[in-house]
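Z., the sequence and structure:
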Amino acid sequence: MSDMYNQDTKGDKRTLIAVVLSVIVITAGFMIQGTLFPSAPPPAPAAAAAPAAPSGPVAATGTTVGTPAVAQALVATPPAGTPAGLPAIEAPVAERSYTVETDLLKAVFTNKGGDLVSLKLKQHKDRDGAVDLVLAGKEGPEGFSLAFGGPGAPAVADLMNARMIDERTIEFSRTFLANVPGKTDPVPFTLRKAYNFRNGEYLFGVAVTLENSLNEYLPLNQGGFAYTLRYGPQVGPNYNHLSKNSDYRKIVTLQEGKKKAENPKNTSWNPKSQPTWSAVSGKYFTFIAIPELASYTTTYTPGTSADIGPTTRLEFSRPAIAASRQTDAYYFYFGPKTEAQLAKYEYADKNAFGKSGLGLVNAMDGSGILGWLETALKFAMNLFYKLIPNFGVAIILVTLLVKVILFPLTKKGSISTARMQELQPRMQEIQTKYKANPQKMNQEMAEFYKKEGYNPMSGCLPLLIQFPLFIAMYNLFNTHFDLRGALFIPGWIPDLAAPETIWNFAPFKIPLLGWSDLRLLPIVYLVSQLVYGKFTQQPQTGPAAKQMKFMMYGMPIMFFFILYDVPSGLLVYWIASNLLTIVQQIAINDILKARKAAQAGKDEVTPRLQKGAKPGKGSKR
């Protein structure tokens, strides 16, 4: 390519550099693509009102909790038995699972710590069945595990008592022993974790209750914290096997009323101000935590696991409690990242929990200045889908609609390009004649354009329109929830929101590229783009011919690599656009030929008329 640059003029160099930079900017844009006032603690969810766990003399295996002055670790090794004079601690002897179901969710819990181990969305499917948003890994899930102390403290793993308060509310409870300075015997206190679900809701409540058996402050203070509620290691479904364009995870918060997207590296990180809510957001599903505490500390800890890939742990640490009994309420949204679901929590009458003004729609990805165009394309695509229930067909029909709407501009641009070819020799004469005087050359060129009625920018208009459409289409196919798992062609394109594949040769990867899949759509795109260039590019001579050759062959090849892993829907759109443009260009070429023939006939007749009109010709007077 350097030889090409050496042979061209300085203007040609700038043009080619601009093209390459444009590609780099577009590529970088695609790769990069991806607030809060604390509220006063309201009454706890229904689950928080659970009565105390029944008591009774059962063999004790309780954990002893020590203060920093007594023990280095907050959770110490449990004693051999219950100290003399203290009531026996009730506890189960074996781990057991419990299931709570609504019309939308199926939640599975374990009595080991009272943690959530599975949360399946009944109405959304994955390759293994219903989508499970609890992604565990080899070390097990941390679905609302609780630790006495601050961030990083070991989670409570004791077996807890479980009881169903009603068909959609479950409570786990356990009595622990705390070593308190100045007291001979450990002080018992009780922990309760209650989960409350409602039909029609992806939101559910979690109530954490701590109660001292004595009328004294709860004996929990490790570095200023009473306990930490955490979720991890990652929000499902599993996306490690998919390409980077298929799914992602990022931290989104609402701080002081403003949405903030966070990207902490491989170290724990705390926001500067207390978030109203924190979310681990994927392309299609999101986990949003809404602690209804007056004060708490949020900690985000990203990392990597050998079996599930990237991880993102959220921890909410509650300050030490200056009371003998305390109930803290939390709400968690665990479901699809759609406006229809998230906007319900702006109005109390739209959701079963009566929540309002939560601003959960901020967890969705923004569309920027092209949001209006993306919305219009989405509306048209959904409309066509209602007529023909196949989103692949809907994409093609949207492409056809866009081509019809833009045909007048495309026709004008093609005529302008053909006109430029006709004027090119005379333009080169002016450029050669005034080469030493650029100011005079620009003046002459402007007068020449005015005389000929030619606008040099008119040929660029269709191309300029294509880029906003492409970006809006890319965003649409990347975020439109209905495209997730949308089938186009059985056996080939099962998901328009993900790259298709006709042969997976993993674990082998193509060196440098890292590809483990052979994809057919990018190849079809490349062929269609090359054919498209043959029909739409006008023949050039001189240095411009080399630029045109690069545009015709170099750009499609570059975009082949850029678009290799993009969602199938985007390539379906681009291929359909190329094929429709070829048909459109054939029609425009016929118009240009007819126009050229008419102009040739006019040019042939005009000199004859002018010759016959001259005085002194034909007869003398």
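The two ends are 71 Å apart (CA to CA). Confidence is low (pLDDT under 50) at residues 1-64, 66-84, 617-621.

Let me know what you think.
H.
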